[in-house]
Design goal:
By secondary structure, the chain is an all-alpha fold. It is built from 23 helices and two strands. A two-stranded parallel sheet has the order 1-2.
């Protein structure tokens, strides 16, 4: 009996503008990131596998989950197995992080191959919707009010130790902004495992110091997560975000919990999990996570919330959230002590997120204007962020018909990338650039040919 052609998968590949080879290459990138070197059935495929699946062969092993994740990232929405025409249940392609796992256990497993949270995630295969389910409010209260008992022995931990962790966190955060998440993340993990964990298991001078150390370690775990996210290591990033949230909850630092949830929502939105991103963003602005935050922090939480609203087509609510974020940022002034973690959030960051929101609402002209404001007001220290903003701006310009304008913008992206930026997100802007330029390659536009050749050369060097 002849197999029935998988028209659903064929249509999705067409929507993604993927050839069989391109689909296989994207699949393999997700598999490498997700499996962390573990060899499993279909951990690497070729174009013939994709052709067989389009022809009606049902993929086995890890393949359905990996392919769905690759398509989800490309199409910016969650693609479950059923939509691809696969018969496996969605639950078999998903794994949920266990919020009951002690964060100190997760920290102790860093660098030992696959940590405890990551094993649970990999049991289902990939970064998936089930892993984005947050605990209920009783969990947050329990974590804050019932901290782990202090051990009778261990190093004495004081305020100076807290400041040491905070200083290191700032140093790595600044390096990430300059060079991207692909530079130094493993050093962060080493410090978390060998130094911060020792502090967390120590004897504290008082409860205030204990909570401050948990908060400082949560920020450092957040930086590790953000660097992994920026470098395209999405399953690792989700695991680190999970650990960071637990540490922040145990410290009782509600605004920091909101800050980390905001980043999780950002990642989920970038990967196409729009509904889940909105739920996480709503949690980030719930209760004291927003109310106890400073104006600058509230602006950052609010603008990402606005983006998730726009992505879910809640246009009026998104516009209102943007206005609140602008008001919050305008209320920030030098007399208000801000936590160091938000040192980088200002007009440029607000303009970037506002532009993304307007882009998702279909207002390309205003989006480009806000991207330009972001580029104009950003300091020279934030080179990686600058490259990402320019990449998004070029994509928005070409979507609005400005081909040569987009080429000029993207030329600046390559200038930045070739000057030592190690960022998966920034690299993805170059991949997207080539795909968006493909319809114009044979139209005799000189700028397109020059830019496309340069982008191809860059990708060949870094891949």
């Amino acid at each position: 009996m002849a197999r029935e052609r998988n028209e659903r998968l064929d249509a999705l590949l067409l929507e993604a503008r993927w050839s069989r080879a391109m689909a296989a290459a994207s699949y393999n990138r997700v598999a490498v990131e997700t499996l962390n070197g573990e060899v499993r059935e279909n951990s690497k495929i070729g174009r013939s596998h994709v052709s067989m699946w389009v022809g009606g062969t049902q993929p086995t092993g890890i393949a359905p989950a990996i392919l769905c994740q690759a398509l989800s990232r490309r199409l910016k929405r969650e693609i479950p197995p059923q939509e691809v025409g696969f018969t496996v249940p969605a639950s078999s392609a998903q794994g949920a992080l266990d919020w009951r796992v002690d964060p100190l256990i997760a920290l102790s497993d860093l660098g030992s191959g696959v940590d405890a949270d990551r094993r649970r995630l990999l049991a289902g295969g990939v970064y998936a919707a089930a892993a984005l389910i947050l605990p209920d409010e009783t969990w947050w209260d329990a974590m804050s009010k019932s901290p782990a008992p202090e051990p009778p022995t261990g190093k004495r931990v004081g305020r100076g130790d807290v400041e040491t962790v905070q200083e290191l966190t700032l140093a790595f955060s600044r390096m990430d902004q300059r060079r991207g998440g692909g530079h130094g993340r493993r050093a962060v993990d080493e410090y978390l495992k060998h130094e911060a964990l020792g502090f967390l298991r120590g004897r504290f001078t008082n409860d205030e110091t204990r909570r401050a150390m948990f908060s400082a370690s949560a920020e450092l775990a957040y930086v590790s997560a953000w660097m992994a996210f920026d470098n395209g290591e999405h399953a690792v990033a989700l695991s680190r975000f999970n650990t960071a949230v637990k540490l922040a909850a145990r410290s009782g630092d509600a605004p920091l919990s909101g800050h980390i949830l905001r980043a999780m929502a950002h990642q989920a939105l970038d990967l196409g999990f729009r509904r889940e991103a909105l739920q996480i963003a709503q949690a980030s602005v719930h209760g004291d996570r927003y109310a106890a935050a400073t104006p600058r922090e509230r602006a950052l939480l609010g603008v990402v919330h606005a983006r998730t609203l726009a992505a879910n087509d809640h246009r009026h609510e998104a516009a209102c959230a943007l206005l609140r974020a602008e008001d919050d940022l305008s209320n920030a002034h030098d007399g208000i002590k801000e936590p160091d973690r938000t040192f980088f959030f200002g007009e440029a960051s607000l303009a970037h997120e506002t532009a993304c929101t307007l882009r998702d609402l279909g207002d390309h002209q205003r989006a480009v204007k806000e991207f330009r404001r972001s580029v104009r007001t950003r300091g020279a220290a934030f080179r990686r962020t600058h490259a990402v903003t320019l990449g998004y701006m070029g994509a928005t310009q070409i979507a609005h018909g400005g081909v040569e304008e987009a080429c000029a913008t993207w030329t600046n992206v390559l200038d930045a990338m070739e000057d030592g930026i190690y960022s998966g997100r920034a690299r993805q802007t170059v991949v997207d650039m080539r795909q968006l330029l493909s319809p114009y390659r044979h139209r005799g536009i000189p700028a397109v040919g020059v830019l496309d050749a340069r982008a191809a050369s860059y990708l060949a060097q870094v891949d």
